[in-house]
């Protein structure tokens, strides 16, 4: 079976050596030494400050909304994983959807300003497939209208924009360290705040609102464990090599796929390093996509409709804005398998099947 992704696992002996220390200390969670070490090493790797390791990539957006006191309208993207919208609804906010750009699939910053009302408090934008949004334009709007900016950077670890980590923008940037990501801790995530006062507030909110016997605020449990941190410490030094491996496979796809009837998102201007988080293709129609999926299935190849559906069409989202570009792209986009270790021969097979399927549709 060739799935759309496969988790990278480090050398078991290396991971076990870190766990031996956990057994010796019997310090399993609650800001243990491996968690603190991982946070420090990630700050160095990304060149950021105020990074907090957390439970997953969803709860960190919840924390950001709470710490920034966002309770009303949030302008957001319809083209993301459902967690981006779910968090807004869960926290009692109203998602207001701005359609996406047809070239890079990120939120169309030109469409944000007409949606701003007296109730707008923030912009929540996703760096789609690790590809940065139009950051300068979004942040100019935020300054003009006194809005907060939260970036869902679930896919963006290791990517850079104008020589800085993509995660080093906005009032808060968040990331997911789920097992399928470029960098992972099995389950996990982080948030990066861009001032120390906000960082301290987020820290309290994620640890029940107290430190020792001193209580500062309300809070929830967003802590992560020494076991997850140990995985991160093993994977982090390999990230650059993993990105290079992803790049090699992506370039093989680029050279073998027939682009006469498919397309790909383009990189946003300003991207100085891409992390090759996914390999999405856009078919000519939804039926063409379904034909490709059906053709790959007998070969044991499992791509993914990622992202699907357009979030403004979710059945529990009420009175959502129409987003024709997102709705169209979401119906036709398919992520092909991409992970370090995917054999060149398997990539050739995938490309052959895709090319034959789209050729059959054209006949």
UniProtKB/TrEMBL annotation:
Alphabetic keyword roster: Aminotransferase, Pyridoxal phosphate, Transferase
UniProt-listed Pfam families: DegT_DnrJ_EryC1 (PF01041)
SUPFAM superfamilies reported in the protein's UniProt record: PLP-dependent transferases
InterPro entries: DegT/StrS_aminotransferase, PyrdxlP-dep_Trfase, PyrdxlP-dep_Trfase_major
Coiled coil: none
Cleavable signal peptide: none
GO molecular function, one term: transaminase activity
Family per similarity comment: Belongs to the DegT/DnrJ/EryC1 family.
Name listed for the protein in its UniProt record: DegT/DnrJ/EryC1/StrS family aminotransferase
Taxonomic placement: Bacteria, Pseudomonadati, Bacteroidota, Cytophagia, Cytophagales
């Amino acid at each position: 079976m060739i799935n759309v992704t496969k988790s990278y696992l480090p050398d078991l002996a290396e991971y076990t050596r870190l766990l031996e220390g956990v057994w010796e200390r019997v310090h399993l969670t609650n800001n243990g030494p491996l968690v603190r070490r991982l946070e420090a090493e990630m700050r160095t790797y990304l060149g950021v400050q105020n990074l907090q390791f957390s439970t997953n990539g969803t709860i960190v957006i919840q924390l950001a909304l709470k710490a920034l006191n966002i309770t009303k309208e949030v302008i957001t993207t319809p083209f993301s994983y459902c967690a981006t919208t779910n968090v807004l609804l869960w926290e009692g906010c109203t998602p207001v959807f701005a359609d996406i750009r047809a070239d890079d699939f990120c939120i169309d910053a030109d469409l944000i300003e007409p949606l701003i009302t007296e109730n707008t408090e923030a912009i929540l934008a996703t760096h789609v497939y690790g590809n940065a949004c139009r950051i300068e334009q979004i942040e100019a709007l935020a300054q003009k209208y006194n809005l907060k900016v939260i970036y869902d950077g679930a896919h963006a670890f290791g990517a850079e924009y104008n020589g800085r980590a993509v995660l080093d923008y906005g009032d808060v940037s968040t990331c997911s360290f789920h097992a399928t990501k470029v960098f992972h801790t099995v389950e996990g995530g982080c948030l990066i705040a861009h001032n120390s006062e906000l960082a301290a507030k987020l820290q309290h909110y994620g640890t029940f609102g107290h430190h020792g016997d001193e209580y500062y605020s309300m809070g929830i449990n967003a802590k992560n464990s020494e076991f997850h941190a140990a995985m991160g410490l093993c994977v982090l030094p390999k990230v650059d090599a993993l990105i290079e491996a992803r790049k090699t496979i992506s370039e093989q796809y680029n050279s073998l796929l027939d682009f006469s009837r498919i397309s790909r998102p383009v990189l946003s201007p300003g991207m100085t390093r891409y992390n090759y988080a996914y390999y999405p293709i856009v078919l000519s129609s939804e039926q063409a996509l379904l034909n490709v999926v059906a053709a790959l299935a007998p070969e044991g190849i499992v791509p993914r409709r990622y992202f699907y559906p357009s979030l403004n069409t979710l059945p529990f989202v009420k009175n959502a804005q129409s987003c024709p570009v997102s709705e169209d792209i979401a119906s036709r986009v398919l992520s092909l398998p991409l992970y370090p270790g995917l054999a060149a021969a398997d990539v050739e097979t995938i490309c052959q099947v895709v090319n034959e399927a789209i050729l059959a549709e054209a006949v």
